[in-house]
Amino acid sequence: MTRLILTIIAALTLAMSAHAQGVMKTHERIAPNGYPFWIYTPEGYSDAQPQAIVMFLHGRSLCGHNLNQVLRYGTLDAIKKGMNMPAFVVAPQNPGEAWKPSKLMDIIEWMEQNYSIDASRIYVLGMSLGGYGTMDFAGTYPNKIAAGIALCGGCYLKDQTGLGELPFWIIHGTADRAVGISESKKVVAGLQEQNLTSRLRFDWLPGASHGALARAFYLKDTYDWLFAHTLNDEGRPVEEYISIDNDILKLAYSELRILRDLVGEDD
Q1: Which residues have C-beta within 8 Å of that of residue 214, sequence separation ≥ 6?
Q2: The 3-state secondary structure of the chain, one letter per residue
Q3: Whether this model's pTM surpasses 0.85
Q4: pLDDT tens for residues 190-200?
Q5: For residue 52, which of 109, 105, 116 has the smallest C-alpha distance?
């Protein structure tokens, strides 16, 4: 059975159920000089049902002071295009600097104070500048983050050992001209030298450009991999069976189109 046939079956299953969109709204800064951000609340959310959080960190092209820019690509855009997301999504906007882990944690703590959150299922993913932010955030708070995915990024942390303490996936294209693959390889090599790779996955995609990695945000596999981990997993093993390669990335948008058409959602 091909991947697209499986996608059609999943979409039909979703279409036969009562389907309602979650709620997406902006929020002002929660602390002086903090990040403004979007919150997506999943359908069916109630205080009695704690939900996971997925934090999406954008790249440099979406930096600024207009939150609508954050909708141009990524997890929120995937939801708009039909992605089913059984979790909160938090998408802050960076004004144009390196992502600061402490500011990102401020948002997580605010979410925990204002919504019913499953603290064992907090995830982060991002690309380019957001890939750096993902590594910096997860490496700073490995005991708070259940799993992370960094696409075509790197790491600014001087002490990167925290990245060996949680399930973490680094993906980079070999033809990336915006952020050289050497940035990701340096992180992997440093963790290898310290024997901290038991929870690490890394994939170098042959011939993949910088922009090609953005397709990962539109793959169900990406979020399935994140959701396969919790802080309560004994030993916090890394999920090894879900894969993302060039061929799978090429299917990302077509899978969403099939899902959207069968469910009947608008763009």
Answers
A1: 73, 74, 127, 151
A2: CCHHHHHHHHHHHHHCCCCCCCEEEEECCCCCCCCCEEEEECCCCCCCCCEEEEEEECCHHHCCCCHHHHHCCCHHHHHHCCCCCCCEEEEECCCCCCCCHHHHHHHHHHHHHHCCEEEEEEEEEEECHHHHHHHHHHHHCCCCCCEEEEECCCCCCCCCHHHHCCCEEEEEECCCCCCCCHHHHHHHHHHHHCCCCCCEEEEEECCCCCHHHHHHHHCHHHHHHHHCCCCCCCCCCCCCCCCCCHHHHHCHHHHHHHHHHHHCCCC
A3: yes
A4: 999 999 999 99
A5: 116
